[in-house]
Predict the structure.
Amino acid sequence: MQLKPDVEVIFEFVGHRRDNLYEGYRPAHLICADYLTTGVHSYYNIENDANEDIKGTITFISPEAYPACLWIGKKIIMYEGKNIVGYAIITKIFNPILCKNEEV
């Protein structure tokens, strides 16, 4: 079953991860101060050069468990285990459950 994406983002990867991306990558996301969740990444422009932003979408697991926690411009930390692999900056929210304010 193909789920619809919850958010559109600009990805900022750190370290080796920038050169080792693939469709369907699933890091953990610090969605709230005390809540990590998995999200499946889809990229619009994964082949762009190192100077361009990587844009795409994230489909989160169980978004109903952490409602009203996102807004445009929020920067989410992404992890592999205890290591920070990058950040996702929210540019659009498709899933109204996640939106902190009424604007979707």
The CA atoms of residues 15 and 85 lie 7 Å apart. Strands lie at 7-13, 28-32, 35-43, 54-60, 75-80, 83-93. The mean pLDDT is 90.
